[in-house]
Design a protein that fits this description.
- With 288 residues, the chain is mostly helical.
- Among the domains are: 101 residues, Hect, E3 ligase catalytic domain fold (Alpha-Beta Complex); 62 residues, no CATH class; 38 residues.
- Helices cover 46% and strands 3% of the residues.
- It has a two-stranded antiparallel ribbon with strand order 1-2.
- Helix 5 runs antiparallel to helix 6 and helix 5 runs antiparallel to helix 8.
- The longest helix is centred in the last third of the chain and has 27 residues.
- The radius of gyration is 28 Å and the shape is elongated.
Length: 288
């Protein structure tokens, strides 16, 4: 059995490290291994092929689209465009939200190595100077630091002339890359692939369950995206989403015969069976 994805190449390329995704959209991220292996170029090629063949691409953040195509033009980036919850983003946010000059100096002192690397390790004498400092830090993180990977990504997007078309009509392609009007569903992903079953009956009988499992997996992912962790058949409503099997308790640990929630007759609380004459502590009492 072979599975072919529309607009894909024969070589398997992993670009997860090259794109730095979040739950909502994909932001630019710097990965030294991805840069060394030229995965930014590969990612651009694959996205261009995917777009030309009609596959969904609408997962870019507005900041990534702006960095790639300079649209909207000359619009400054801000802290909200940076990757959330990282140490650097938190430090820059602290500077932007500082209420006193001492607060700004405290952050500068804590992060002097990063400030030195960004070329922003300069004395601040007034609170109003923090705005220019934040702009410089955001520019370093979003533009200066990512010049080479963004350039290779653009060169990959030149496949089949995609990059040139986006440059000509950036306002039109903004909705194509960033705003998804149609929610990505399991059916949409399934239609990207074409399954070619074997002609031999023996192999065919083994291949059909694989496809069924694959489609069930897509349905499960779609359900988890809608409601967090999707409880499968027989799963309780616990937050861990662990599927309790027959005779299993709430923690998912299988209970043997006679095991109750608190251990049951002949079983201790840890789930270890007690032999004849063994006490609750697991130590067998001696004679008398």
């Amino acid at each position: 059995m072979t599975v072919a994805a529309e607009g894909s190449s024969c070589q398997s390329v992993s670009v997860m490290g090259a794109t730095g995704g979040s739950k909502v959209s994909v932001r630019g991220a710097l990965d030294s291994k991805a840069l060394r292996d030229d995965l930014y170029f590969d990612a651009g090629c694959l996205l261009a092929l995917s777009l030309v063949h009609g596959s969904p691409v609408s997962f870019f953040s507005r900041a990534l689209f702006q960095c790639l195509f300079n649209y909207p033009p000359n619009q400054p980036l801000s802290v909200k465009h940076m990757t959330p919850y990282t140490h650097v983003t938190c430090q820059v946010s602290r500077i932007a939200e500082a209420e006193t000059l001492d607060d700004v100096k405290d952050v500068l002192e804590e992060s002097w190595e990063f400030m030195e690397l960004a070329g922003c390790n300069r004395p601040i004498s007034r609170l109003q100077e923090r705005e220019a400092l934040v702009e410089d830090l955001v520019s370093f993180m979003m533009i200066t630091r990512l010049q080479l990977p963004l350039q290779r990504f653009r060169e990959g997007l030149q496949t089949l002339g995609v990059f040139d078309q986006v440059q000509l009509f950036p306002a039109v392609f903004l909705s194509v890359f960033c705003d998804t009007a149609v929610r990505l569903t399991a059916q949409t992903v399934d239609q990207i692939f074409t399954v070619n079953f074997s002609e031999q009956e023996e192999r065919l009988s083994r291949e059909k369950p694989v496809v069924a499992f694959w489609r069930n997996f897509l349905q499960d992912c779609e359900g988890r995206g809608q409601a967090g962790a999707r409880p499968g058949p027989g799963r309780g409503q616990g937050q861990a989403g662990a599927r309790p099997g027959p005779g299993r308790g709430q923690a998912g640990a299988r209970l043997g015969p006679g095991r109750g929630q608190a251990g049951g007759p002949g079983w201790n609380r840890a789930g270890a069976r007690l032999g004849p004459g063994w006490g609750q502590a697991g130590a067998r009492p001696g004679p008398g």
